[in-house]
Amino acid sequence: MNRNYYILTAIMFFLALGTLFIHERKVPPEISPGELLWDVLQPTRFVSTDEVAKRLIEKDPSLLLVDVRPASEYNKFTLPNAVNVPIDSLLTPAGQSYFGNPGMKVVLFSNDAILANQAWVLLKRMDFKNNYVMKGGLNEWMKTIIQPKMPPQTAPETAFERYDFRKAAHLYFTGAGIAKAGKSASKMKVVFKKRKKAVVAAGGC
Amino acid sequence: MHVHELNPKKTLWVLILFLIVIIIGFITMKKPLLNYQLSLQQTTKILNDTSNNYFYPYQLVNVLDHENKNVVLIDLRNKYAYGLGHIPGAKSISSFSLTQKENINLLKKYKKNGITVVLYADNQLDADGPWLFFRQIGFCNIKILLGGYDYYKAHKNNLAQTKEDNSYLKGFPRFDYAKVARSKTGTFSASQKTRKPVIFHRRKKVTVAAGGC
Known about the structure:
The complex is a heterodimer.
Chain A: H1 3-18, H2 33-40, E1 46-47, H3 49-57, E2 63-67, H4 71-76, E3 83-84, H5 93-96, E4 105-109, H6 113-125, E5 131-134, H7 137-146, H8 157-177, E6 190-191
Helix pairs in contact in A: 3-8
Chain B: H1 8-28, H2 40-46, H3 50-53, E1 54-55, H4 60-64, E2 71-75, H5 79-84, E3 91-92, H6 101-112, E4 116-120, H7 124-136, E5 142-145, H8 148-155, H9 177-180, E6 198-199
Parallel strand pairs in B: 1-5, 2-3, 2-4, 4-5
């Protein structure tokens, strides 16, 4: 047999041997840095507190609120039905189970939008879609929904309509809407007692 | 017997050509301009490093007085906004042109020379995304200006005094949420204890009705 066949076989053998050193990538799938920057520059990820309040009042089943603050802050106060995924837990399987579910829209929030925005960037890098950031966070929530201010008399009609909505939302959320983490609103039980007839009716018309 | 076994030189040439093609392929393989230098775990850790991430408004005083020449300010807003007003000495590189090759090379040059790059936009949130992006691709010399241009514009005549101010700081609750969101109208709140069931008692007739119409 030709000597060159041996050489060719040896080269192929070494190339095949090289495949043994290719390790399986254990890192989660990531989008390219260029794609990430492009997405980061789009303002479409921000939703207003009004929009979140509206969805909550409508009990939108496709909405999931995620509080990215530390558990100590979450336990003091959070929005109705919000789950707590602190930013350190975003990389754990338990934390990631809330994201990327088909048909679900996840709104991230924190005290303001900074921490929630950073969580969004990390999730975007991991290619999780349908995540949004509540602009202004809980501070803005308090300003606009819990303590709405009447617009000046010269404000356009839409500002008054928004104010009316906020007043209604204020009543909703300071009533049965706001729930402490871990506790659910329980309805009052009304017990009716039947009137007993004491004696046989006597007299009357 | 194969035909090329009659001509061993021909086989050798094919073999050499094969190797040359592979080597040229490796040499000319295009490297991507940007690569993640920090893993996701490392990125979550740097988010807590407040000393290395932020540039405070009062620190601008030294930059504007040309005392600190190791700082370069980059205005991420569009050219129009930059033209209307900007921090003196700031370079205009709008967010959408950040990843152009010449801009990346400029940032690499700053990093090599140990120059701190401070990004700013109208507010902190607008510059937060680009800042976190650059940290992930390895630009550890990039900081973000707290308060952004809006805060600078409002306090440009008294920047040194802003050291005591904390209105530009983000990430803190500005309200006692639980207290503010508590019901003031007496309506039911889940945070309150569950009320006892309401029992209606009817007044009993003491005696047989007497009289009537």
